[in-house]
Amino acid sequence: MQMPPLDPAILSRRSEIVAALRAIVPGEGVIDDLDGMRPYECDALSAYRQMPLVVVLPDTVAQVSAILRYCQDNKVKVVPRGAGTSLSGGSMPVGDAILLGLGKFNRVLEIDYANRCARVQPGVTNLGITKAVEHEGFYYAPDPSSQIACSIGGNVAENSGGVHCLKYGLTTNNLLGIEMVLMTGEVVRLGGKHLDAGGYDLMGLMTGSEGLLGVVTEVTVRLLRKPSTARAVLLGFPTEAGAADCVAAVIAAGIIPGGMEMMDRDAVKCAEAYVGAGYPLDAEGLLIVELDGPEVEVDHLVARVEEIARERGATTCRVSRDEQERVLFWAGRKAAFPAVGQISPDYMCLDGSVPRGRLVEVLSEMRQMSKQHGLRVVNVFHAGDGNLHPLILFDANNPDELRRCEEFGADILRLCVRVGGVLTGEHGVGIEKRDLMGEQFTEIDLDQQMRVKCAFDPDHLLNPGKVFPKLRRCAELGRLVVTQNKIPFPDIPRF
Amino acid sequence: MASTIKPRSPAELRQAVEWALNEGVTLDIRGSGAKLALGKPMVCDQVLDLSGLSGVVDYAPEELVVTLRAGTPLKEVEALLAQRNQMLAFEPPDLGPLLGQPAGEGTLVGALMGNLAGPRRLSAGAARDHLLGFSGVNGRGEAFKSGGKVMKNVTGYDLSKVLAGSWGTLAVLDEVSVKVLPAPDQTRTLLLHGLADEAAVQAMCAAMGSPHEVSGAAHMLGRTALRIEGVAPSVEARLKGLRDLLMESGASVEELGTLESRAFWREVRDVMPLKAAANDVVWKVSCPPTEGPGVVARIRAGCPAVEAFYDWSGGLVWLALPNSADADQALVRGALGPAGGHATLIRAPEAVRAEVAVFQPPAPALAALSARVKESFDPKRLFNPGRMG
Hints:
The structure holds 2 protein chains of 2 kinds.
Chain A: H1 8-12, H2 14-24, E1 30-31, H3 34-37, E2 54-56, H4 61-74, E3 77-81, E4 97-101, E5 108-112, E6 117-120, H5 126-133, E7 138-139, H6 152-158, H7 165-168, E8 175-181, E9 187-191, H8 202-206, E10 215-222, E11 224-225, E12 229-237, H9 240-252, E13 259-264, H10 265-275, E14 285-293, H11 295-311, E15 316-319, H12 323-334, H13 336-343, E16 346-349, H14 359-373, E17 377-382, E18 387-394, H15 399-418, H16 437-440, H17 443-456, H18 474-478
Parallel strand pairs in A: 2-4, 3-4
Antiparallel strand pairs in A: 1-2, 5-6, 6-10, 7-11, 8-9, 8-10, 12-14, 12-15, 13-14, 13-17, 16-18, 17-18
Helix pairs in contact in A: 9-11, 10-13, 14-15
Chain B: E1 3-5, H1 10-23, E2 27-30, E3 46-49, E4 56-60, E5 65-69, H2 74-83, E6 86-87, H3 108-113, H4 121-124, E7 131-138, E8 143-147, H5 159-163, E9 171-179, E10 181-182, E11 186-193, H6 197-208, E12 214-220, E13 223-230, H7 232-246, E14 252-256, H8 258-269, E15 281-286, H9 292-302, E16 307-311, E17 316-321, H10 329-334, E18 342-347, H11 350-355, H12 364-377
Parallel strand pairs in B: 1-3, 2-3
Antiparallel strand pairs in B: 4-5, 5-9, 6-10, 7-8, 7-9, 11-13, 11-14, 12-13, 15-17, 15-18, 16-17
């Protein structure tokens, strides 16, 4: 994994840059000593580490604006960071770039129950929003597994998902407005408490742009009323194909569960040993299907799901009897990653999406690859929306295993693209999948995306080295060569 | 009158754009032409007719995705989905009759390009939330794609979002993949009679904030409608819960069955409750739901003849005003107030639309950014020049 070469001119101006930042953000908001910067040297993709040039932690929008304008004027790169929980290296520092932390923007600004929305600063945690409104029976729907720590600003940058996406959407479907600062220092408001922006939907473009277009300084999210009932059904199948068929059949029957998760045999074994959720150890494929809504509806749908599962050969079929048991059913799934961590020194978590109909084929091919690469793979995934999270087990202290693990991971993602899926369903491209972008996109596709980047950040100063496998200068991308040869096309009907 | 090019394949579409680029020819891009009267009037050198790129390419009900060509009629897609008890959950409106055109003429891609959604926008999201991916041609004559055919995808920028609502000014699409959802077994409606605007919006907001999963909330001429959809036992229970909740409003309550409800909400979707006279101008205002009645009151103070009805729990206000040279744009936009929102002139004579900002004028920094985004797709301004102002 290569990052762009460091710019010696910037490195040599470090003390001047630090002084300029101190003039904008007084006191302890600028951190330039090694010990102080250490906590920022990586995000949740911790295999890769890098010290930033300097860390700056502004606490007003005016400061953010001044910092970005300074960076633009002086051609200094900037890496924005929320809580640093990115799994793709989205907030990994760059050696010749300022790390701009938004952690001090941690206030809930306004809660408007009548209009069902909340206006918050970007450093508020995902769960923090729900905590602020749950006493009135409301919640914020997207629930990435890092929700206790991840920030809503980071969620906007990564378009974060979670287990309830199938029914309630990703971050992008739950935003009403944002305020952002451009590299010029201009502050722009997109959307608000109303629905749908006038003009181009730049908020939609910003969401999932991985910190490459602008810095979000305020977020207005849609609040939902908490469903009155939620119940989980645990379904064990003697084959993975049986479990996958059941997923398709539930959806074909017109049921959109709140969540529909699948675990393979190894994941079930690990999770059961770790938390004792009562999972059936004989199952090759385990589903957790959660139905939520009014109680009568949940009762009705639980019965339908049970019926469908039995027709598909389920050998275990248990419905949670109370809230405690529902939480227990989920506890195993939620602890699956640390549980796998118990049986292997390290694991790499992948994040491809595939059409649901290709799940079985993808799993079986993954097993073949596992043999070829000589590394085990465990599968835990959001089956309802075809979002896979294969965990490759390896030992990071063994350089050969790390190399094989990276190759195996790349092969799995190529497989996802080959069957009509995509490289990343919810974790983002970051640095992790950057060099695989060519598997899914042509150069023209990527050039178009990069031209959009140029509209926001013409000098490629924001979050450099992320998402795009190779950078092209904006001036070069903007050049338009019109051939002087007239192109006739007599074949196309004209009238 | 501009002549027409009608490509029959994606390759011909790309060639046509390449030719236009070389010749410096501007293109008026049309699916069926059903929404030609919406937007700023354009003067283009050539019509690019996409009706030759028509048909469903792939439909897998259990994947909840349909892939189709850009010129495919909306009614064809809806009929296909209905066979498998599925639907376009954003409820694309048919603005034909409102715009003085026949009903049932539009294309699905046309609805996406306008980011047009009906009453279920409240609970199911906008058109843009359902566009999973596309392929098309940019203003450089290059074929490109973005997004995909899967529900969850964060690979690269989400260009689908910015294309939806771009009114054909960024790229010409040839194929789209759209998310579909199961259609509800039953649809019922509670009609409350006699509530004034303020009380109606209060009742709608209370209903939307309840656990009864209301999927439509509209108010017109002393009638306030709340829609409940789903499986039979759930619909019954939620209707009861909603009735109990609304008791305190004191309004008399009537219930509409499934067939009546479907007809009722189709009318709301297509803006039929607005009994606009033929030469009235029609505005669409999006604002925070609780602000809706205030917006209408401020406009009424300046123009007592205004007629209004509310959808989206009060957050979407449809207005008819007597025709005037400037369509009363200062009055309408001035009424938005500090809570914000936007107003779009949906219907007005061509001469009026030529003078008035049809779409909400953005703040300067945002306008400059939007212009750079436009340039990143279509540097020579070949596509629908000036349609968005």
